[in-house]
Amino acid sequence: MKKTLPLLMTVLLASCQTIRIGMNPAPDANAFLDALKNQDISAIKNSVASGSDVKNETLTKSLEKIQNSDSAASKSAKEKISKLEVVDCYMGSDRSICKLSNDSELVLKKDGLAWKVDLEESTFSDVFEKDMQSLFRAEQPPEYVTIQFTLALLEGNLEQAKEYSTDRTHLMLPLIVGMMSAAQQDQSEEQKTKMDEARKELSSMACEVSGDRAECAPEGKEKSMSLIRDNGVWKVDFRKGGDEDHSEEDDAESMDSEESDDEM
């Protein structure tokens, strides 16, 4: 009996330790990050809770983009991912939160004796995607940015227009997008044809770059769109290059005039 007691205590202690580790969300959070660092899409899928399909698909596309590129942006993305760490975890009965080194959080849901990452509820998803977009946006030339911004206006896509423009430009975008959308509803067949032609002209977009400023316009067009390089990323800016006294109202009128000319 005396020999059996120490053995029994050892088994009990080992059992308690196993249960405690299984309940702790940190190992499962680290397993998710390890899969991310290794770009192991299959392992990531196994670490993610059901119901996170949309965010998981977005994450997968970002990783595939990183894998299939040898660009500077891709290398920076891999380096950024490699530095991700679990800082601290707070455990609940069926949900836990782990804080990460990039100031985001992973929400984990209980799944048997393990934890699964709930990407839909985790702030990590949005922070990660924003970081990745910023890195790859730096590779986009001013011509591409101008085209995407113009298409966003023509299609009434306010969020995309914001993505390709400066903060000061955002103030005027709701009005401009609203006017463009209203104008398109009453278009004649002739106007629709000219709008289609205007879209085709975007393929000939050319920019004159001077330092962190650029003036872009399709070939043969006199009116240009101004861009600035903001933290390494080209963005449309309604302020005319070198004209510090140019008002926001003048910018809005100029932009409206340019789009009206295209419609005509």
Question: How would you sum up this structure in a few lines?
Answer:
The protein is an alpha+beta fold. It has twelve helices and eight strands. The longest helix is centred in the N-terminal third of the chain and has 20 residues.
The main pleated sheet reads as: 4 strands, antiparallel
The best one-word shape is elongated
Instruction: Give the uncertain stretches in residue-range form.
Output: 7-22, 240-264
SSE order: HHHHHEEEEHHHHHHEEEEH
The secondary structure category is alpha+beta
Measured between the Cα atoms of the first and last residue, the distance is: 99 Å
Helix content: 55-70%
**Spatial extent as radius of gyration:** 26 Å
Number of helices: 12
**pLDDT averaged over residues:** 81
Q: Work out the number of β strands.
A: 8
- Share of residues in strands: 15-25%
Biggest sheet: strands side by side, in what order?
Answer: 1-2-3-4
Structural domains: how many: 2
Which terms would index this structure?
alpha+beta; 17% strand; 2 domains; 8 strands; 264 residues; Nuclear Transport Factor 2, Chain: A; elongated
Describe the protein's architecture and organization.
The chain is of the alpha+beta class. It has 2 domains: 20-137, Nuclear Transport Factor 2, Chain: A; 142-263, no CATH class. The chain is built from 12 helices and 8 strands. The chain starts with a helix and ends with a helix. 26% of the residues are buried. Mean pLDDT is 81; it is low at 7-22 and 240-264.
SSE diagram, text form:
Blueprint: H1 4-23, H2 26-37, H3 41-47, H4 53-67, H5 72-82, E1 86-91, E2 95-100, E3 105-111, E4 114-117, H6 123-137, H7 142-155, H8 158-163, H9 167-170, H10 173-185, H11 189-201, E5 205-210, E6 213-218, E7 225-230, E8 233-236, H12 248-263
Antiparallel strand pairs: 1-2, 2-3, 3-4, 5-6, 6-7, 7-8
Helix pairs in contact: 2-3, 4-6, 5-6
